[in-house]
Amino acid sequence: MENLDWIATAIVLLTVIFVLRISKVKNRIVEKILDWFPAILFAYVIPAGFTHLFGWDLSGVYLHSLSRNWIIPITLLAVMSALPLRQLAIVGVRPLVLFFVGSAIIATLPVILVLIFSGVDPVSSDLFVGQSYWKGLVPIVGGWIGGSTSQLILKELAQTPESLFLSVLVLDNILVNIWTILMFQFIKKGETLSTLLGINDPIPDQSTVDLKSSGRKIYPWITLLIFFGIASLIFILNISFLGMVVSLSIIGLVLGNIFKLWNTRFSLQLGGICIVLVMAILGLRLDFSNLSLPLVFVLLVVVWLILHFVGMLICAKILKLNLVWVPIASMANLGGISTAPAVTAAFRKDLMPHAVLLAILSMVTGTGWGMLTIYLFQNI
Question: What is the pTM of this model?
Answer without folding.
Answer: 0.70
